[in-house]
């Protein structure tokens, strides 16, 4: 195993945060992410922010559609090119 396999940069961690939180990273990437998070306070804070945002957004009911949703759909349908 090469040293580069475990050397993530902050921008790498930012790209991997979602699959990391979902548990979807392969073992080597997951270990590299964990090592980086142990060493980098900024990324730990970022991952925690993303985790809290996901929890917050997933905790409530879905938003209600706008009252004029049918009008919007009709306008879009009227502007759609003929197929």
What does this structure look like?
The protein has one domain. Helix content is 66%, strand content 0%. The protein starts with 9 loop residues before the first helix and ends with a helix. The relative contact order is 0.11.
Question: SSE layout and pairings?
Answer:
Blueprint: H1 10-22, H2 27-39, H3 41-58, H4 69-79
Helix pairs in contact: 1-2, 1-3, 2-3
N-to-C span: 55 Å
Query: What portion of residues is helical?
Result: 55-70%
The string of secondary-structure elements, in order, is HHHH
* Fraction of residues in β-strands: under 5%
Give unreliable regions as ranges: none
Q: Tell the overall outline.
A: elongated
Number of strands: 0
Largest sheet: none
The secondary structure category is mainly alpha
Query: How much is the radius of gyration in Å?
Result: 21 Å
Mean pLDDT, to the nearest integer, reads 87
Separate helix tally: 4
The tally of domains stands at 1
């Amino acid at each position: 195993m090469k040293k580069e396999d475990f050397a993530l940069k902050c921008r790498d961690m930012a790209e991997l945060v979602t699959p990391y939180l979902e548990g979807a990273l392969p073992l080597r990437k997951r270990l590299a992410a964990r090592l980086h998070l142990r060493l980098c306070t900024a990324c730990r804070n970022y991952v925690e922010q993303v985790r809290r945002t996901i929890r917050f957004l997933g905790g409530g009911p879905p938003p209600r559609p706008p009252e004029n949703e049918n009008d919007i759909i009709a306008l879009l349908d009227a502007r759609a090119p003929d197929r």
